[in-house]
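DM from R.C. (forwarded with permission)

"hey, sorry to bug you on a friday — could you get me a structure for this? deadline for the figure draft is monday and I only need the backbone to look sensible"
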Amino acid sequence: MTIIALVLLSTLWMLIPSGGETNAAMISDDMYIKKQEVDRFNSEISKVEQDIARLDQDISRLDKEIDKLDKKLAAAKNNAASQKALQSMVDKIELLQQRMENKLDEQKKLREKLVVAKKRQVEMEKIRQVNKEIDRVETELSASERRMAELTRQIDQRDKQGTDHAEVKNELLELKNVVLQLRQAVEKKERELGALKSENNGTDAGNGYTEYSEALTKGKETFEFSIANNKIFLYNNEWIKKNYEIERVWTRRSGIKVYYAKLTAKNYINGENFTEIDSPESQFQKELKKRDPKKEFVVFKLHSDSFKTFRKARAIASKYGFASDWDPVDEVWYVCLKPESACASGAGGGVRMGRR
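My reply, with the result:
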């Protein structure tokens, strides 16, 4: 756990009032697949394929050398004058055979790695395609919502003028149905995306992908934003107090009391919306400018109602050179407070909570 995170949690502990009991639902992390990660992963697959081809050539060369020596050895056994060279050839054949066995073993491991990596490659592309489809539908949805707002203004204006607005009203009703269908399409695609990411969490960690994801964040500190009701705000004590009801709860795990902060998003969220974060003068972009992407990376605490703003925020952070993770959270979620050892192991998920 980073020093920043420890400071945040220790201060948060002092802010939490007493509260009731509930059930905890711990959320697992997931890494968003960025294009640069896909490109790097594909490049690694190409390198593995080249290594396998190189080993094929090495094995073929060694096989030919061994075959030649076998023939010389057979001739030497039938020629008394060549007996002195016999042991030398035997030793050389054994050495070449050992080299070939090592090459074959290396090639076998690479082939196994390649099979898993190609499976992961397909999974990554599926996720990218679903993300693209969500972006396409959301673009269409935004255009339809703007048109709805314009039609509503026209109806209000015609009401004031006392002119007929039946045609406009019919178009508005039709558009409302379109918007409803588009929103349902977005929700469906987001569920599909969540399912794909859940499947990928179960993929063999030895496939090399995890190494590339971690390479973007290794040795870096995190700084965090939360996104709720499509508004983004810095995840620190000041903004947590503004936007969440905070309650202290506990559970017992292996005889140890483990304490959590239960955070419930308020109905009104203070923060910057989808449009406001476009401005270089927004608090979001100002915060990014203060940070160093070589030393830090962004983590988004993402509520399920805020994918639209999240995708834009992630793209803006990427333009500033930041790698990013996202941590999906529910409307009510839990932050482990202490003891630190229990927090590190994720103890307490899905169990009965008590009040303190």
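R.C.: lifesaver. Confidence is low (pLDDT under 50) at residues 1-33, 201-213, 345-356.
me: no worries. Strands lie at 221-228, 231-234, 244-253, 256-265, 296-303, 324-329, 332-338, 354-355.
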